[in-house]
Design a protein that fits this description.
about 150 residues; 10 helices
Length: about 150
Amino acid sequence: MCIYYQTRLYDIREEKEMTQKEVANKLHTSRQNYSVWETNTKFIPLNHLNDYCNIFDVSMDYVFKLSNQPSKSKKGVKTLDKKLIGRNLQKLIQTKGITQQILADFLNTTQSTISAYINGKTLILTAFLYQIAKEYNVSMDDICGRK
């Protein structure tokens, strides 16, 4: 499934007058990796997105153009907690009155993958988190415990 999305990675970097190489170094990755994230060729992995948001003091929602507010009131988390994210996903499922299978079908994945996210065994993919935030009108930052 092809997901159309745009980020502000380029705009934020340019505003800070940094090169791709400088940002890549801060994210402990290669310039080539960073470049494909910035050009929206591939989704930035969630751990790198969290680090990026911490470095530039912006929210995930702002980076993915789900919000026009650059920063959250609280500084982001240093390391993402898979179990907390899982609990927040479980709350979302309950609040929206859906099942793991319905969410899996929406994301074109398996129920066992959703279960692994909810049980904190696996960190959710950025692409899935983005789709959930957009579809269910929730904050990526809130799901990740960054609020």
